[in-house]
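Supplementary Methods S3. Complex input for the LLP-bound model.
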Amino acid sequence: MYKLNGSVTDETDFFKGNDVYDLIAAYGSPLYVYNEGIIRKRCRELKGLVSYPDFLVQYSAKANTGLAFLQIVKSEGLHVDAMSPGEIYAELEAGFKPEDIFMITNNVSEDEMRFAIDRNILICVDSTEQLRQYGRLNPGSSVAIRFNGGIGAGHHEKVVTAGKKTKFGVNPEYIPEVKKILSEYGLKLAGIQQHIGSLFMDSEPYINGSQAILDIAKQFDDLGFIDFGGGFGIPYKKLSGQPRLDLRECGKRLDEVFYGFAKDYGKKLTFRIEPGRYISAESSVLLTDVHCTKYNGPHKFAGTDIGFNVLVRPAMYDSHHDIEVYTRENRSAKEEEITIVGNICESGDIIAKDRLLPEIKAGDILGILDAGAYGHSMSSNYNNRLRPAEVLIRENGQVVLTRRRDTLEQLLENYIKLDI
Ligand code: LLP
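Predicted complex, serialized as structure tokens:
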């Protein structure tokens, strides 16, 4: 294979000598390819983020719920969050212990709460009504509460999760009611949580947001932990030289916040963070076959098999993913403007609009970079398409299949035919 542009996968030795044409021949297109070493590296970077000793990194599993992915994160000693019984189920299967799992709920049913309670998993509720519901189901136990400190941030309005316009968290004005409910049901408040939103490239909003949750924390005497949520960003525009989040500076500022607060609080408490994207995004390149190219007027299109059922981020948030072009023959890399599209019957089915890339031809393979977060986990069977396989490149370069591609039979297995 030849590569016409970009140096990202070379710099990280992403494919470890494996040829993308061989990978597609063996596992089909499209294909999520993961690099184990990158997953481990990101876990270790965040574990070492601060010097404050009582610090816990909980991987936010919604970014990538693959079993092998979870197993790797577990083996790095991280804890994990869960949004649903389905995530808990996968996490327990991957080897996490109930005490490693923190269920952060949003509008859950009694049955869903009971699922976690029955498995001794700590639950974080995000409304006073859900706190009551929890109290009725599990009086005399420990619980955590998600607060909405009023400061939100994120790469798109759809991923800002604090502030008055969002559905998340308990507004601090309800703290007196919270205290009443806690005492009514004999509940102990184990910790409090916030998540201001997804993707910051500069630690400022995260640090500012932390003040809001700390002000709330001061109003409770005996907290075991404060969870600051996720949001740590990755540079999606590496090909244009976008710098990384400065983790050293972020860690230094967080240390100041942690040590400062713990001293004033007068009690040892644990600080938690909850990154999803930072740990998973850069660990995957999504490969796709180019099936055809064509012009509509002056606009050139390359048609691939990555519909928004495979990677929804560009269609849903206008997200940018860098693209590398791989070819069988060594061609000159003349650049042109091209729109990369999928195979779904909607005109919004676009992966990259008017992108300047080396000339692309049918038979080329494209690598969509940074696809490991909110890629496969948000994929669907829309248009009755099969969700792709996932493979992992181990640290020794060996390729293993970690998820089979869906089958046609699976598409129909839950349907019940009429007797007509
Ligand atoms: N904690 C909670 C409670 C969350 O809701 C989230 C993400 C995280 C942690 C992890 O955030 P991260 O570190 O990954 O930014 N689908 C969108 C992102 C949605 C994030 C939802 N919540 C995307 O593809 O950009």
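The mean pLDDT is 96. The longest strand covers residues 284-296.
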